[in-house]
Amino acid sequence: MKLTLKLLNESFTIHSLSEHSDIPPQVFAAPIYFIAKTFDEVSIVLPQNISIASDKTEPNWQALEVVGPLDFSLTGILSSIATVLANEKISIFAISTFDTDYVLVKKETLTAAITALTSNDYHVIHN
């Protein structure tokens, strides 16, 4: 099954904080954000124009949203997209939500990622 992906306008930074860190309040004011907490760290993905104190940062990511909502019975969606991009040596940072998936690629690989996806029958629309 080939899907539609929507390129979000925002550029993102991925932040890493220690596992005992409090979430900075400006995160919750952002128009879009992602938070993951493990036993070892807190990861926060924020629009690049929002600055927070973090241990490490990885800036300049662009997000492609799989247009959903996606049913939980669907399988292989993220795997298929990741394989197309891996075949082009494009690294991803993947995020899943209840309704859909987001695939983040570095800004400098965005054009190649869109070309690879469209040549593999995915539709990519601009927000």
Based on helices, strands and strand pairing, what is the structural class?
A: alpha+beta
Largest sheet: 7 strands, mixed
Q: First CA to last CA: what distance?
A: 22 Å
CATH architecture, by name, is 2-Layer Sandwich
Report the CATH topology name. Answer: VC0802-like
The string of secondary-structure elements, in order, is: EHEEEHEEHE
Q: What does this 3D model show about the protein?
A:
This protein has 127 residues and is of the alpha+beta class. It has one domain: VC0802-like, CATH 3.30.2130.10. The protein is 20% helix and 40% strand. It is built from 3 helices and 7 strands; from the N terminus they run βαβββαββαβ. Strands 1, 2, 3, 4, 5, 6 and 7 form a 7-stranded mixed β-sheet that branches. A hairpin with a 4-residue loop joins strand 5 and strand 6 (101-106).
Could you provide a short overview of the structure?
This protein has helices at 25-29, 77-87, 110-119; strands spanning 4-18, 34-37, 41-47, 56-66, 93-96, 101-106, 123-126. With 127 residues, the chain is α+β, with helices and mostly antiparallel strands. The protein has one domain (4-126): VC0802-like (2-Layer Sandwich), CATH 3.30.2130.
Search tags:
127 residues; alpha+beta; VC0802-like; 7-stranded mixed β-sheet; 3 helices; 20% helix; elongated
Question: What does the secondary structure layout of this molecule look like, with pairings?
Answer:
Elements (H helix, E strand, L loop, with lengths): L3 E15 L6 H5 L4 E4 L3 E7 L8 E11 L10 H11 L5 E4 L4 E6 L3 H10 L3 E4 L1
Parallel strand pairs: 1-7
Antiparallel strand pairs: 1-3, 1-4, 2-3, 4-6, 5-6
